[in-house]
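Dataset card, provenance and construction

Sequences and ligand SMILES were collected as paired inputs. For each pair, a complete structure of the chain with the small molecule in place was predicted and serialized as structure tokens. The example below shows a pair involving NAP. Curators did not alter the output after generation; any descriptive sentences attached to a record were derived from the structure itself.
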Amino acid sequence: MSTAKFPETIEAFAINKTGGFEVLEKLTLPFPKVEPGHLVIKVEWIGVNFIDTYYRQGLYPYTSFPAILGKETSGEIIALPTDPEVLNSPDFQRMEYKVGGKVAVDFLGTHSTYISVPWIKAYPITHGVSTRIAAAGLVQGLTALTFFEESYKVKKGDTILIHTVAGGLGLLMAQLGKHLGATVIGTTSTKEKAELAKAHGVDHVILYKEEDTVKRVLEITNGVGVEAVFDGVGKDTFESNFEMLRRKGTLVSVGNASGAVPPVSPLKLLPKNLKLLRPTMNNYLVTPDEAAYYGDKVFELISSGVLKINIFKEYPFTQEGGQQAQKDLTGGKTTGKLLIKVVQD
Ligand SMILES: NC(=O)c1ccc[n+]([C@@H]2O[C@H](COP(=O)([O-])OP(=O)(O)OC[C@H]3O[C@@H](n4cnc5c(N)ncnc54)[C@H](OP(=O)(O)O)[C@@H]3O)[C@@H](O)[C@H]2O)c1
């Protein structure tokens, strides 16, 4: 496809090397290569995620530089794929993409003014959800949905523990857990965050800096432990999770907010026949059926109010704005979602 109708350059948050916040730059880069199976999208909103900081620091690797940061955006389709095989496939057609249609995207390297992405990575925004809310809810909403359906199937009567419960992902997991009929226990650092978590349905909030988390969880569960733990903290909380799980429980290692979990022996699972998973949402959204099912479901749950999207702050699309968002997120003071507005009204 010719890129003649597109601008020659884009503005993007990118890095030329891994490192501290200062390596995040706002760069002018060539318009991305448009493959025949790609949708081209003019970006309106950027969602900030913890994973952006892992890539910036080098915990997760980039293969070449400059590397565009970010994996969550929303905006308007400005060009459809040109590959006739794609255009004629029932999987593509059921998504009803059209020029001018709004989509939310989960694809690495998309914090920029224009993006070109494989069509399956763009979720049509349905059920009347705005592009602002879609950029705030897509990645964490899909993570909550897929992890509660596939990593551990949360069901009525379960008691589950969610670390970082007042964060972007945590608040969505808490609401989904309640919707599915579970009792939700969550950990967080401050009373203010605890109040927010309770307002989003969390049954028991543990202030882990003041209270003994293991003791409280065992008290709440009459010494039995929880069916599942969803742990986005990582290094600092990993070990104690084993004391809070019941026999045949499931530990879902969700992320590394405090650092990566060191290698672990399978023998650790033996005393209670536990299950341990370290999934990533992307690997649950690979086939067209998975994308169509979860994509529509996340917007339905947002639109119906089951998943209320809590936006912490909107940052400007400037180098300082990009750096500040990552500083705030890793500084542990935020609640809910951090957004960056790309298109000005
Ligand atoms: N596997 C996947 O596919 C996937 C997808 C999305 C997100 N995630 C993971 O889920 C976790 C939450 O992501 P999020 O974007 O929603 O972030 P977030 O929860 O909004 O922010 C991180 C929170 O982690 C807590 N925290 C605990 N120890 C920390 C430390 N040493 N440094 C910084 N924060 C610390 C803080 O909350 P308190 O004040 O309550 O301690 C902080 O606010 C991350 O680990 C992320 O990588 C994984």
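Derived descriptions for this record:
The longest strand covers residues 38-48.
The chain has ten helices and 16 strands.
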